[in-house]
Structure formats: C-alpha cells, structure tokens
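Lecture notes, part 5. Sequence design as translation. It can be helpful to think of inverse folding as translation between two languages: the language of shapes and the language of residues. The source text, in structure tokens, appears below.
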C-alpha cells in the first residue's frame, strides 16, 4: 500500500501496512451477530475447504459492540492492525510494551481465532531512535527487536509478517535504515532471526501492488527464489490486495500460483475494495463481483491458505481517512449490515444462506412460484414503496438480510430499510412495503421450514398478488394457503 497514511482515532496510520489476518480457526463458532446465523459464515465456509477467513482489528475496535459481533461470528484469524508494530512494541531502545498486542491475542484466544503477527520489520511506524542509530548498530537493534518480540509471542501466533513492504513500485528495495545498513541481506537476516526465536511460526514477506504480474511482483519472485536457494526459512508471501472497484488484476490467480509453485504458502492478507462515496448500486454490485473473484482466485490455488479483510466494516475502515472521497470498501456497511460483497464472497466459498424460506440469513429472497426475486422498485429509498417481484440480477435492491431481531432489511446507497406491513395492517391484502426500521412487530418476519414467510404481528403470509409470475407483480400479505406464490427461499 502507498505511504503516508493518516493516523485516525481508531486505525492509527495504516500507512501501507502489511499483510496479515488469515488463518485457520479452532474452536466453536461465536454467537451470531445481527443478520448472521452460525453455519452460514465466512469462516465456516472457508474451514470446510481447509482455509480461513480473517480480519484486522485495533484495540479500539474491541469496545464497538456490533462490529465485534460480526468479527466473532465471521472471522477465524486476527491481525493486530498496529499493536505489534515497532513504534508500539519498542518505542525506546530496549524498552518494550506488549500490553496492546497481548490484549488482542487474548481476544483472539477467547473467540477461537488464530493470530497473524504484524509486523517485525517495516520502514514505517518506526520510532525515530532506530533511524538515528549509527549504521554499525542497526543490525543488532533489528535482531534484538525481532528476537524479543517473536519470543514473547512464541506459540501464540500462526504466522509473522517478518518484513513488510520492502519494495518500491519499480521492484527496487526501499532504501530504509535496514537496507542502508545491511543491503539486501537484511531480508535473510530478519527471517533467520525470527525463525530462531519462533521455529513454529510461518514466516512471510508481505507487500501491496504485487497481486498481478508486474515489475514489483517479478522482483519479489526473484527475491523469493534467491532466499529459498540460500536455505532461508521463508514460508509464504502475503498479497495485501487493497483494490479499487473494478480493478482486480486478471492474472491474479496465475500470479498466486507461480509463487505457490516455489513451495510457498500464499495468502490474501489485507483485502478491501474502495469506491467513490456515496457508493452507487452499480459500484456495490461490481464490488460484490470483485470479492467473489478474489476468493475464487485463492481457492483455485491449493497453497492459498486464506483471505483476510482489512477491518470489519465501513464505519471503521482506514480508507476514508487516507483516500478522501473514497470508502465503502468492506463487506459490511456503517451499520454492520452485510453488503452484496458479503453474499458473493460467501457464495464463492461454497457457503449458502439458502433453504426452505428459513435456512438463510442474507441474499436474494426468491419467489418459488415465479422464479423471481423480491425487489424494491427502481431501488427506491422512499418510505412506503410497495415491493414487487422482478427478474433476479443481484442488485443491492434485491439483497435481503434476516436479522437476529427478525427484520428483513435491504440496503442501497447507504440507506437501510425494513420490510414492513403497511400501516401495521393485519388483514389480507395489506401491502408489503419498505420503511425505516423501527423494531416494531409489523417489521418482524418468520422464515418457516415450509418456505413461507409470515408476519409476526399479523400471522399472514408474504404473497405474490394473484399468483402472478410477471415482472412488477406486487407483493402483499395474505391468508396462508401453502400455494407456490407464498413460498420463498433466501440466499
């Protein structure tokens, strides 16, 4: 990632931070957050294919309830965003502070997550005392820092990003204090030192802008070849994957595979996909396609061990503070509601929210009799708009989430609305509309095992008027009959 990140209240300077968070989780699933049911999660779907799906967190995130509900339910790998970096861990020479990192490790252990250590050596978030050392003292300072930190966390981390973002865009090594003191040899020395301190951890080089085949990834490939030929304990390459919507490299899978062919693990370590804000419906649909592409590219490579998103939700993403005018880069919106990207990523993993009306939690709500999707006409955000059925096209106005409190929500252009029995009607023919969510019983729905969807307040069934199969047929509440125009599947 590019340099010069802004330090924000929750996500300090993420200036180019490096890879992390992927990992296989052990332990039971945490309690499901709003809109998410255990068994239909990213981590469960990834684990079924011996992969993992992770996230990055700061200590500040731990106090944000809804965000943590999503994190606990969906992710099985945790990458500390800042708390293991040099300026936090060793702010002055020989003086160590492991408290912030320990807090995140304890959170991970309590919630069945593994930890990706991030990072040991990086030219950013580096305290001034390191850069001010005489060159003759840099090697010993680096080795001491690596040894002390890796020993402290020995047995508690799955992998380390040993060296983070060592390359410029043209493939040359960044002329930081480590390169100036030791030349290119600092890479091998850092990896050997980390291995000596924690022989059980997988050791990575992590960088951005290397997802496709280009000058930078070619240079990293040559470095990896050279390190392996020297017997250096390099175990993997982290591909940060900070993308702009619609710009996933077409050769990403082939690039992952060539590194894997060297006998290395590969991982997508910091995935996000930014767009101009407010995000349009078309941008969110392209983002969904992008997330699915990245997941499929990983799954197609046997040594791609997992995918991690950088952060949990749009409200706590580093993107808006670093790229003004851009944001909406994650799979959850600012209210921790899943976006189309979540549905597509889960589907790409082979997960599903489908099943007889009640089995799913997020996705298209399909009318069985018509073979069409519950749709908000013209993606309207006007309260009282009656919903219809329409040909399924994966638009945000057709993606519904059944939340923990029983609501059916739809989110488009940053606005979340609830499916609502208009006017709290309890008679057959009451319109099914979208309305600002208020938690009342006319906005609560049961997804039943027989495929019907019933209103909690009225007991009536969600019904396609006149059993029509035409685009634009309106949806209402009607006395339950068991007919196919009252059968739905979610997912």
């Amino acid at each position: 990632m590019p340099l010069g990140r802004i330090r924000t209240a929750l996500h300090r300077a993420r200036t180019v931070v490096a890879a992390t968070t992927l990992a296989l989780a052990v332990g039971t699933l945490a309690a499901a957050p709003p809109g998410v049911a255990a068994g239909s999660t990213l981590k469960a779907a990834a684990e079924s294919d011996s992969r993992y799906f992770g996230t990055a967190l700061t200590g500040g995130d731990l106090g944000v309830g809804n965000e943590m509900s999503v994190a606990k339910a969906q992710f099985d790998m945790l990458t500390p965003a800042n708390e293991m970096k040099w300026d936090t861990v060793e702010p002055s020479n020989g003086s160590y502070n492991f408290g912030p990192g320990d807090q995140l490790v304890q959170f991970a252990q309590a919630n069945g997550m593994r930890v990706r250590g991030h990072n040991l050596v990086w030219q950013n978030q580096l305290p001034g005392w390191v850069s001010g050392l005489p060159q003759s003292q840099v090697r010993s300072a680096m080795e001491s820092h690596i040894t002390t930190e890796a020993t402290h966390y020995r047995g508690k981390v799955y992998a380390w990003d040993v060296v983070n973002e060592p390359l410029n865009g043209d493939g040359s090594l960044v002329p930081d204090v480590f390169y100036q003191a030791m030349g290119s040899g600092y890479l091998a020395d850092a990896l050997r030192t980390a291995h000596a301190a924690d022989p059980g951890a997988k050791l990575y080089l992590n960088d951005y802008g290397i997802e496709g085949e280009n000058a930078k990834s070619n240079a990293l490939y040559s470095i990896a070849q050279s390190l392996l030929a020297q017997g250096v304990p390099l175990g993997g390459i982290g591909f940060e994957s900070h993308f702009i919507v619609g710009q996933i490299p077409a050769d990403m899978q082939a690039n992952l595979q060539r590194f894997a062919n060297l006998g290395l693990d590969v991982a997508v370590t910091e995935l996000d996909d930014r767009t101009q804000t407010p995000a349009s419906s078309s941008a969110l649909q392209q983002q969904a396609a992008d997330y699915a592409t990245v997941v499929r590219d990983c799954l197609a490579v046997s040594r791609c061990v997992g995918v991690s998103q950088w952060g949990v939700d749009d409200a706590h993403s580093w993107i808006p503070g670093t790229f003004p005018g851009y944001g909406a880069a994650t799979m959850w919106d600012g209210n921790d509601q899943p976006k189309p990207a979540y549905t597509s990523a889960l589907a790409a993993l082979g997960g599903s929210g489908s099943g007889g009306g009640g089995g799913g939690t997020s996705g298209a709500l399909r009318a069985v009799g018509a073979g069409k999707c519950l749709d908000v006409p013209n993606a309207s955000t006007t309260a009282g708009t009656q919903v219809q059925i329409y040909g399924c096209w994966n638009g945000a106005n057709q993606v519904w989430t059944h939340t923990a409190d029983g609501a059916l929500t739809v989110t488009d252009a940053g606005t979340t609305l609830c499916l609502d029995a208009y006017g709290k009607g309890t008679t057959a023919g009451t319109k099914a509309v979208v309305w600002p969510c208020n938690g009342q019983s006319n906005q609560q729905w049961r997804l039943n095992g027989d495929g019907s969807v019933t209103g909690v307040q009225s007991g009536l069934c969600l019904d396609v008027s006149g059993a029509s199969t035409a685009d634009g047929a309106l949806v209402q509440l009607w006395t339950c009959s068991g007919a196919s125009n009252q059968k739905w599947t979610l997912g």
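The translated text above is only one of many valid answers, since several sequences can fold into similar shapes. The radius of gyration is 24 Å.
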